[in-house]
Amino acid sequence: MPIRQLPDILINQIAAGEVVERPASVVKELVENALDAGATRVDIDLEEGGSRLIRIRDDGAGIPGDELPLAISRHATSKIASLDDLEGVGTLGFRGEALPSIASVSRFSMTSRRGDAAHGASLDVDGGRVGAVTPKPHPQGTTVEVRDLFFNVPARRKFLKAERTELGHIEEWLRQLALARPDVELRVSHNGRPSKRWKGESDLLSDVRLNETLGEEFARNALHVDHAAAGLRLHGWIAQPAYNRASADQQYLYVNGRAIRDRSVAHAVKQAYADVLFHGRQPAYVLFLELDPRRVDVNVHPAKHEVRFRDARLIHDFVYRTLQGALAETRAGTAIGQGV
Ligand code: ADP
Ligand code: MG
């Protein structure tokens, strides 16, 4: 075959392979967009585990009607404009890839209104084929509808699991998010019935939310940690050793508000527990690491599950020492924070 330039739709469908694995990845990208737009409330309506319908409505800033076609164009973003912005990026999104990817493998529509606009506007995309912008009433904010995910990519659609399984993945991701953003109200419905609701509470992670997400027993055994040094801050909750798990299912790590997996930090936590946990048992924790965004590269993976630290060793040792100190103090009988 001669070399040829691929058409845009196909390029987006190829990118979708990396960004859109299953309905939960769509929910993740769309809710992150809502949060980046400053939403205080996000409604998530699902049908058939999200494979039939994912509808996300937010009360964020909204998009001007004439920018809707840009929003679903590849590499179009309002979040960065230069390499310098990228290096200090504070938003969850920045690649300008999610919407075109999702819209290329679903029946997609986006309706939005900015606070200052007289009326809303809507744009449909069918399997990557973009329609025209039409006026449509909408309160301030944005609604994105994703129907029939992978309808035009049978090989991917075939790999979708049972409704319960897909819903489980969505809820697990929302749980992660709910822990990081207790200030945002999240409402979920599935097949027309309300299924989950996290009320927007406050800036602080309330024990209510800890209870709801990790269970009462975790909350009862949780030690509050908050320590800063060398421009790093680690805060959150770790379970006392008496509460431990057979698997790593209650290990939540956030870096600058983004849920990530990191071997080095996970290792540091395990090390801190090494003397106080039985071999093979796993600690439970919800930890937030905050640092200058310039010290961490978030542009490592299209789905942004991983980051790269400029000074990984320093961070490892900081996490280890902070938690080891906290655990040692409880053993000595002087909890550094109160159990929640
Ligand atoms: P990214 O989030 O990386 O910028 P996306 O493809 O997810 O890329 O979104 C493209 C652009 O569309 C965003 O930069 C933003 O300007 C706009 N956008 C998407 N979703 C929303 C939303 N819910 N509210 C306001 N603007 C949005
Ligand atoms: Mg995005």
Offer a few descriptive terms.
single chain, 340 residues, alpha+beta, Heat Shock Protein 90, Ribosomal Protein S5, domain 2, 2 domains, nine-stranded mixed β-sheet, five-stranded mixed β-sheet, 11 helices, 32% helix, globular, disordered C terminus, binds adenosine-5'-diphosphate, binds magnesium ion, DNA mismatch repair protein MutL, nuclease, endonuclease, DNA damage, DNA repair
* CATH homologous superfamily identity of the largest domain: Histidine kinase-like ATPase, C-terminal domain
- Our Rg estimate from Cα atoms comes to 21 Å
Task: Report the structural category.
Answer: alpha+beta
Number of strands: 16
- Total helices: the number is 11
> H/E element string?
HHEEHHHEEEEEHHEEHHEEEEHEEEH
Uncertain residue segments: 334-340
Bound molecules: adenosine-5'-diphosphate, magnesium ion
Return the CATH architecture of the largest domain. 2-Layer Sandwich
Give the mean pLDDT: 92
Shape by Cα distribution: globular
Distance from first to last alpha carbon: 64 Å
The major β-sheet equals: 9 strands, mixed
- The percent range for helix content is 25-40%
Which CATH class of the largest domain applies here?
A: Alpha Beta
In terms of DSSP E residues, the strand content is 15-25%
CATH topology of the largest domain: Heat Shock Protein 90
How many domains in all?
2
Family: Belongs to the DNA mismatch repair MutL/HexB family.
Domain DNA mismatch repair protein S5: 210-328
Keywords: DNA damage, DNA repair, Endonuclease, Hydrolase, Nuclease
Organism: Lysobacter koreensis
